Amino acid sequence: MYRKILLFCLIVLTLLFGNNSLALAQDRVFLDLSLDFIDSYQLTQKNYQDTVVGGLSGITYNPQKDEYYAISDDRSRKSPARFYTLKINLDNNKINNIKIEGVTLLKNRQGELYPNNTIDAEGIAFSPRNSVFISSEGVSNRQIPPFINEYDLNGNLLSEVPIPKHYIYDQEKGIGVQDNYGFESLTIKANGTMKEDPFRLFSATELALTQDFDRDKNINSLLRSRLMHYVVNPFGQPVLIAEHLYPVATPNFGVVANGLSALFALPQEGYILSLERTLGLRGFGAKIFQIVMGNASDISNEESLGGNIDNINPLKKKLLLDLKDLDVKLDNLEGMTFGGKLPDGSQSLILVSDDNFAPERQKTQFLLFTVH
User: Fold this and answer.
1) CA-based end-to-end distance of the chain
2) Distance CA 220, CA 23 (A)
3) Mind listing the pLDDT tens digit for each residue in 97-115?
4) Half-sphere exposure (Cβ direction) of 177: Cα atoms closer than 13 Å
5) CB of 336 within 8 A of CB of 266?
6) What are the pLDDT digits (tens) for 8-43?
7) What does the pLDDT average to over 240-258?
8) Which burial class, exposed, middle or buried, applies to 70 when counting CB atoms under 10 A from its CB (0-12, 13-18, 19+)?
9) 144: which DSSP letter?
10) Report field, pTM of the whole predicted structure over 0.85
């Protein structure tokens, strides 16, 4: 009797929902999150302490001091490689003011400023050790490898994260990050607040590695990015515990450039926000996704992703917001972070754009959202 009732219920559910039941199960994998746009702000200041302000490609928040650090992707051409300290006033649930309060010049292994065209800093993340980790895409055409380094808040190099060999560009072997498609994104997930506590670090390539992109047989393989997952301990080098396939969204018609530009690790374990930006005939676009790490395959031993990847479980993605739906003309959005709490107690999310040092055509744009 009970078996017949159960069977009847299953039939009814199938008739009512059909394949939607699978979609509902998929939705339960993701957090119940939403983003509401609040405000936009344009930073018009172009110079600070003998440096050219621009190229802000990543942003991170220091809750201890209620200040933000924004990395410039200047390759030490206009001014030395650097990050800026910003104070963002969020009174009245909007951006009232953004003030540059400091600039920090980065130093290399020799304790010197980075020479011209030897660094392409793109991502920045504040750590529990009162330091910042910074990622560089490298300069492939000059055989300068990408890196993820730790610096103190005075710009001194503290440590270097080991990078797997298959990310280091080698033209003869046909491997490594493609030029300008390297470690654009960087984020830290810290469970504790003490400097002795271990934490997790994530970075990803903007688009596919050289060996993962089969231009002749599968042009869409360009969208197969790799996300690296490290554990950083108080002693010894950071340990890479996994790599995962991050599927960049297929661009719409008219898009000429796209890629993964930022990651932000959510407080909930195993969840990340990602920012993908595009450039097309109608200007810039951007989308924010929620990423779930559970059940994603470890691809660290995959020599190439250019062929059939049916045996690989990619990171699961869910679109949270298409910023094209906002009543705002978007710029080249590349940085993303949680910020301070808004006056009503809600969590803020802040995005920043890279103006490519082209103030006549672009701008340094900040967008403010609330997270529910």
Assistant:
1) 45
2) 25
3) 999 999 999 999 999 999 9
4) 30
5) no
6) 333 333 333 344 433 444 556 999 999 999 999 999
7) 95
8) buried
9) B
10) yes
CA distance 63 to 338: 10
Structure tokens at 352: 């920043």
CA atoms of 312 and 299, how far apart (whole Å): 8
Residue in the structure block whose two tokens are 């933000």 = 68
The answer to whether 136 and 146 are in contact (CB under 8 A) is yes
> DSSP letter at 76?
S
Q: What's phi and psi for 141, nearest 5 deg?
A: -70, -5
- CA-CA distance, 234 to 360, in Å (whole number)? 46
pLDDT, position 9 = 38
The DSSP result for 165-216, as a single string, is: GGGS-BTTTTBSPPTT-SEEEEEEE-S--STTS-EEEEEEESS--GGG-BTT
User: Beta partners for 88?
Assistant: 98
Per-residue pLDDT tens for 152-198?
999 999 999 999 999 999 999 999 999 999 999 999 999 876 778 89
60 and 124 in contact (C-beta within 8 Å)? yes
Q: Which amino acid belongs to residue 112?
A: E
